[in-house]
Specification:
- There is one protein chain.
- This protein is mainly beta and 321 residues long.
- Helices cover 8% and strands 55% of the residues.
Length: 321
């Protein structure tokens, strides 16, 4: 073989290897974790459980949501009063918008091309739900809510929203077409909420140690589950068979949704607060606010398989499809 031909083949091989590595890095599923004390977002490659980027955002980032169709990650910055838009391709902030007064929870709903942001004013004043156009980010409506609307989720088709109002002791159900609250479900100190649309069920952590099961057709409470102290973030598995409830005392309770009983408890890091699952439900990612780490749980074995150092006071977490 001529030397020039060998060099040509070697060059093609190296180019292919580099492009493959680049593609695997760019298109691999990622977890995005807000670090409230560091004013950053950690980007985790979920294939090898490593931090591949640390993105500076505004002051005290609180909420995070992903819109894969726009390759965008949305982060609310409470103290800056802004919304940072991160490109999933470059892992950099590409735009910063005014996000209202104390923007907290954020949720992108691609099916309706809407972006929702809750406002946390203070401990005595009701907050609002801001409804934005998902393309132009123009404000469409403001919906009055309760005090400290911390958690938010949507029905499968995006027609209804469910928002927890922590200090108002209620969950608000919002009609996404009319931008009005159509129901308020009384619940003491509701924190987080996760919905399983196929069974018309939503799950709410409340009262510090329990999870409420809501019927989303009748907007009524059908069951209460005791999970122990410090129940905060929750997430339902994609197939609806399990629910994961984070407890600030340092564990995650695994709940069988058929029997509504706790079937396992997984020890994670110090001060866990939030949780998100990957699209297959095989891994759960838990932010540990006191140990500044993310615990990765194998949901088959219910064991921690990786611990990832991130920034200061990690909170909300979102995982791309």
């Amino acid at each position: 073989m001529k030397r020039s031909s060998f060099h040509h083949i070697l060059f093609l091989f190296l180019a292919l290897a580099i492009s493959t590595l680049w593609a695997s890095s760019v298109f691999a599923a990622k977890a995005y974790v807000v670090n409230r004390n560091s004013n950053t977002v950690s980007v985790i490659n979920t294939t090898n459980n490593t931090v591949i980027a640390t993105v500076p955002v505004g002051m005290y980032p609180a909420g995070v949501s992903i819109n894969p169709s726009r390759s965008s990650v949305y982060v609310t910055n409470v103290q800056s009063g802004t919304l940072s838009i991160i490109s999933m391709l470059s892992n950099a902030v590409v735009r910063t918008l005014t996000g209202g007064e104390g923007p907290y929870a954020v949720m992108a709903v691609p099916s309706t091309n809407r972006l929702y942001i809750t406002e946390i004013v203070d401990a005595v004043v009701d907050g609002d739900l801001l409804v934005l156009n998902g393309t132009s980010y123009a404000l469409i409506a403001e919906v009055p809510l309760g005090i400290q609307p911390f958690g938010m989720t949507a029905s499968k088709n995006g027609s209804r929203l469910f928002v927890t109002n922590f200090l108002s002791d209620r969950v608000s159900v919002v009609d996404a077409m009319t931008h009005t609250v159509i129901s308020n479900i009384p619940l003491v100190r509701p924190w987080d909420i996760s919905v399983f649309p196929l069974a018309n069920r939503a799950y709410v952590s409340f009262g510090g140690n329990r999870v409420a099961v809501l019927n989303t057709n009748s907007n009524t409470i059908v069951r209460r589950i005791n999970v122990g102290g410090g129940a905060l973030g929750i997430a339902v598995a994609p197939d609806g068979t399990k629910l994961y409830a984070v407890k600030f005392t340092g564990t995650v309770s695994v709940i069988d949704t058929a029997s509504n009983t706790v079937i396992a408890s997984v020890r994670v890091g110090a001060g866990p607060q939030n949780i998100a699952l990957n699209s297959s439900g095989s891994r759960a990612y838990v932010s540990n606010s006191k140990s500044n780490t993310v615990s990765v749980i194998n949901t088959v074995s219910n064991r921690v398989v990786a611990t990832i150092p991130v920034g200061g006071l990690p909170g909300e977490i979102a995982v791309s499809p």
